[in-house]
């Protein structure tokens, strides 16, 4: 059998910096656990635009369709802000999600004990937090037609369309119920059925799918109230399922509960391929962080934990994923902190690379 294949797309800004630390972890698995991956690397986002005039070359798109998993760093940055919308770095990422049909975006928010004091919320509100946001990723207002900026009378109008088919809601709801079955058997669906027809349909379809999962306790919440409840008492949630735009906002909010955007990984999953594995792309929730790029300050943990998610969801290596997550936890418990995690007095931050090295040492210690 051939080795599992991974396509690495470091991207822009801190993307390549955090990905360099993931590569150390991949090498460690090869050297110390004899887990070999066929790793290839390519460009996405602004770096692809600089090389090819497009944020995602067709050849890269084709490679992404073939591999067992794609690992992406981050895309975007001020250098590309003035570009035409169609070639902006973010379009490369959106094309990958759409063409790979990665409809189920898993964004866990877990509070590591060592960081409970660091959250902007009180310690007892976040200590032990472990929730999973399932964000629909290939439809909704991100992709709905009509869209554009048109002339109307003597002014311009910006248009985007929220649109969901029953089957799009059904499949993401099923993936959320399946996850809930493997976790705490609680699912909260968030929309705005009070003001949006797409929300009414969303609630109906999720309720219908729920009949196939009688063991899962299903609740519904308006997304604005959900945002409030996430800050008030996040531990009431187990799995949350929501649409593309609400999921984008709610997962950034959830990220801050855990201390830093630099901590949150994600998995974007599609339908199973011929080998039974889901099409998959793994990436940190954070962006290219232009304000700290090139300074060795970025926290690589979100990207390393995204690789851990690939071990779990693409490579059936749950025990190795546990090992890597435990290594991260140990390093944090030992007080190792990148600059985004500083709060305690007298702690000197480590660099991106030193954080990666500390995690690799903790992996060594786990043997
Ligand atoms: P951002 O996530 O890049 O940064 C927000 C803040 O969090 C910044 O202060 C940044 O320094 C900090 N931060 C983020 N990741 C960090 C890390 N790993 N370690 C330490 N600090 C970290 O969001 P933004 O500033 O709104 O966006 C910047 C660019 O990134 C934009 O072009 C945006 O479109 C893009 N973006 C890309 C992705 C992606 O590739 N998936 C996601 C979000 C934003
Ligand atoms: C994210 C990002 C992306 C999104 C952008 C960069 C296209 O914010 O992954 O959360 O809006 O989905
Ligand atoms: Mn986002």
How many angstroms separate the termini? 26 Å
Task: Output the strand order for the largest sheet.
Answer: 2-1-3-12-11-4-5-10-8-9
Over all CA atoms, what is the radius of gyration? Answer: 20 Å
Number of helices: 12
Mean pLDDT across all amino acids: 96
- Structural class label: alpha/beta
The CATH architecture of the domain at 1-108 and 262-367 comes to 3-Layer(aba) Sandwich
Concise overview:
The chain is α/β, with parallel strands linked by helices and 367 residues long. It has helices at residues 15-32, 46-52, 58-66, 89-99, 123-126, 166-182, 197-210, 223-232, 244-257, 301-313, 318-333, 352-365, and strands at residues 5-11, 38-41, 69-74, 104-110, 130-136, 144-152, 155-161, 186-191, 217-222, 239-242, 265-272, 278-284. It has a domain at 1-108 and 262-367: Isopropylmalate Dehydrogenase (3-Layer(aba) Sandwich).
